[in-house]
Amino acid sequence: MAAVKKIDTVKSYNEEMGAETRHPLVNVVNFDEIATYTQFSRQMGLYCIFLKNVKCGDMRYGCQPYDYEGGTLVFIAPGQVYGIDDGGSKIKPSGMALVFHPDLIAGTGLAKKIREYTFFSYAVNEALHLSESERSTVVDCLNKITEEIKLISDRHSKTLIVSNIELLLNYCLRFYHRQFITRTHVTGNILSRFENLLDDYFSSGKSQQLGLPGVSYFAEQLHLSPNYFGDLIKKETGNKATDFIQRKLIEEVKARICIPDSSISETAMELGFKYPQHLTRLFKQKVGLTPDAFRRLN
């Protein structure tokens, strides 16, 4: 792929795409209305939501390709890199894109909760696959934003544009929750594999080598982004992945400290704690007893 090009403004993105700039901070681009398309990698200073209609090449997110199909949404946050690799075929993309600058939502309720939309940091191979009705909902939101952009700006314009963006993001949350349930043939039994990885982490001695297990480690082993993995576990169990890890960790502590002649210090070292007092603090927080007190009772 070509060198990465920085796109920090909506105007710059419009110029690259051959689209008209009607608003300095937001635009909805219809790729079917664009005459040409320049292939290069971009580092975006914008929030971007791409609705893909038909296959037109491999989308790249960072260094990883994703062969995406019709009816998908891909989300890009400021600072992320993406591009289109068409294999030299020069096929123009078909679909729509919503791009908006972080300044658009500054001082709004959306700015305070934008981090809650964790799909902006999902990997491209974790794109949102839409049903026909879901796609219609997305297009309807994009069309409403487009109409507001076309109107002469007044005191209500920003509020209505931001409200429609937030509405779209909330629909995407709903659609992702549906995907977690329906696309089990893609994700497999993540929870079961996660449990097996947790067991192996402690039984194989990885905890002594790598320290306490973290969400990023298991996400990497399962070839998922940390946020997608965390959201999937929360959907499956109702608990955070960190809570799941800590529960397994406490189970290991209980089993090991009840072995005759074992010590709290040795157990802490075996399980990856930096200091024994860290184990004691976590154990008391979760169990309500110190490890010594628990051992005496058992």
From TrEMBL:
InterPro entries associated with the record: Homeodomain-like_sf, HTH_AraC
Domain HTH araC/xylS-type: 192-297
Keywords: DNA-binding, Transcription, Transcription regulation
Domain of life according to the entry: Bacteria
Pfam families documented for this protein: HTH_18
GO molecular function: DNA-binding transcription factor activity; sequence-specific DNA binding
Cited PANTHER family: ARAC-FAMILY TRANSCRIPTIONAL REGULATOR, TRANSCRIPTIONAL REGULATORY PROTEIN
Annotated protein name in UniProt: Transcriptional regulator
Organism: Pedobacter kyungheensis
